[in-house]
Amino acid sequence: MLFIKNVTIKEAMLFLLFAGVILAAKWTVNLLVKKRKGKSAQNDRIMQEFLHS
Predict the structure, then answer these.
(1) What is d(CA 20, CA 50) in angstroms, rounded to the nearest whole number?
(2) Distances in whole angstroms, Cα of residue 53 to Cα of each of 8, 13, 28, 47
(3) What's this model's pTM, rounded to 2 decimal places?
(4) Region 15-28 average pLDDT
């Protein structure tokens, strides 16, 4: 728990902001992949491999 002493509120808020941006980007990509389902099975497999690597 020693590392918590040196974390400022600003740093904690920046971390939460960046984590939120990363999650929003992941959800957006997943949504776009789901919308493309059925258009091209090969493209979906390539995109899924890219996302899971």
Answers:
(1) 21
(2) 34, 29, 17, 10
(3) 0.56
(4) 96
